[in-house]
Amino acid sequence: MAVFVVTYRYTEGSADARAAVRPTHREFTGALAASGQNLASGPLGEDEIPGALFLVAADSKDAALALLADDPFQIEGLVAEVTATEWKPVTGPLVPGFPAS
Prior knowledge:
- This protein has one domain (2-87): Alpha-Beta Plaits (2-Layer Sandwich).
- It has 3 helices and 4 strands, in the order E-H-E-E-H-H-E.
- The radius of gyration is 14 Å and the shape is globular.
- The chain has helices at residues 15-34, 61-68, 72-75, and strands at 2-10, 38-43, 51-58, 79-87.
């Protein structure tokens, strides 16, 4: 299993709609976290382009994108762009056996 950084860029003017859908979005991302597929996720900072970042465990880039395809934010058309990039962590808690004893 690999780790992928998935980013969302939200559609312009979607803040109110995202607020309305957020509870079901959080249920969805929480279920992925409980299954071990969503390693971490959250919105980007207020001074950034409106969007979010996910760290997901998946077998491929296509699988990472498919994992989030059923996100209520995507289903409701609140995401204008989704990108996925494989990430190879070398230090930190996502690295098996870190810290080395």
